[in-house]
Amino acid sequence: RPRVLSGIQPTADSFHLGNYLGALRQWVALQDTHDAFYCVVDLHAITVPYDPEVLRRRTRVAAAQLFAIGIDPERSTLFVQSHVREHAELAWVLGCLTGFGEASRMTQFKDKSAKQGTSATSVGLFTYPVLQAADILLYQADQVPVGEDQRQHLELTRTLAQRFNHRFGETFVTPEAYIPEATAKITDLQEPTAKMSKSSSSPQGILDLLDDPGPLRKKVMRAVTDTGTEIVADEENKPGVTNLLRIYSALSETPIPDLESRYAGQGYGALKKDLAQAVLDTFTPIRERTEKLLADEEQLDRLLARGADRASAVARQTMDAVRDRVGFLGRA
Ligand code: ATP
Ligand code: MG
């Protein structure tokens, strides 16, 4: 079986619809065909200002949500990144193979650091894509299901894998990004040209998996639409309606042209009402299962420990080879 790896940051109290459609739904589906490794990437979450107790809570909530959406601990390896020390270790080695200029071109760093200002921006945020490359390469992943915003980081991962292999001998699989186009970029409901994001969307612009039904419905009904009344997908002129059509199409598994004809002659309100219902139908069972899982923290932590054991076994093997190839003296 080909191997798949992906990660998600515990940077909020809930994952959102963009995470779900852009990545997590694929994580669940890929379990059927792939040997799957999924991690809650807490090392990445400390690249921006945070509170330690909040991080610990969010890490558990993140894991619970992943089990709740259908990641099966019997079939997949789900773990917390900091439980496997090799991530940080490999990141150091790869960092020494990454050019400063090369890292400086990462647009996500440029965006996030511009928002924070240079004095608040950590070196960790700058080297984040190198750590991400380590996450992937440690497990020899063939495919990495992510949203469009990760394409550039994936390209860097591929470059680093090839560079390492060329310099030190064949060691890493060169992974491919797996980015289904229809849901690759879900946008903010209030700002339909910006991506929906845990850290930068306003509460009104984001649909959280763990939101209550009332607020979810309200946010969908108040989503920014465009001038005119026609319900058609048109990225250029109607980014708001296009985003809603994309979301509804994915949730209802109905092609966009079918939706366009179904809603022809009706106002935006009709589409929004049905979309709100589809969102609730998807999110409610996830929220309920998450709450149940969080009620037994010991059981949840045990599942994560098992995942970490399985992940460590693979990571250790890769790292042993890396240490040897790069010329570190083996410990007697
Ligand atoms: P942050 O704002 O803290 O970076 P995020 O919302 O971008 O949070 P991540 O944990 O960075 O979430 O990313 C998890 C996964 O979700 C990644 O695969 C990412 O590509 C995907 N993703 C994030 N936002 C979207 C979106 N709006 N549309 C589609 N996929 C998305
Ligand atoms: Mg992100």
Automatic annotation (TrEMBL):
L-tryptophan binds at residue 135. It catalyses: tRNA(Trp) + L-tryptophan + ATP = L-tryptophyl-tRNA(Trp) + AMP + diphosphate + H(+). CDD domains: TrpRS_core. SUPFAM superfamilies: Nucleotidylyl transferase. It is found in: Cytoplasm. Keywords: Aminoacyl-tRNA synthetase, ATP-binding, Cytoplasm, Ligase, Nucleotide-binding, Protein biosynthesis. Its main location: cytoplasm. It comes from the Bacteria. Its EC number is 6.1.1.2. A motif ('KMSKS' region) lies at residues 195-199. GO terms for molecular function: ligase activity. Gene3D superfamilies: HUPs, Tyrosyl-Transfer RNA Synthetase. InterPro entries: aa-tRNA-synth_I_CS, aa-tRNA-synth_Ic, Rossmann-like_a/b/a_fold, Trp-tRNA-ligase, Trp-tRNA-ligase_bac-type, Trp-tRNA_synthetase. It holds the Pfam family tRNA-synt_1b. It is an enzyme of class 6 (ligase). ATP binds at residues 9-11, 18-19, 147-149, 186, 195-199. PANTHER family: TRYPTOPHAN--TRNA LIGASE, MITOCHONDRIAL. NCBIfam families: trpS. Belongs to the class-I aminoacyl-tRNA synthetase family. Homodimer. Catalyzes the attachment of tryptophan to tRNA(Trp). This is Tryptophan--tRNA ligase. It comes from Actinoallomurus oryzae. The gene is trpS_2.
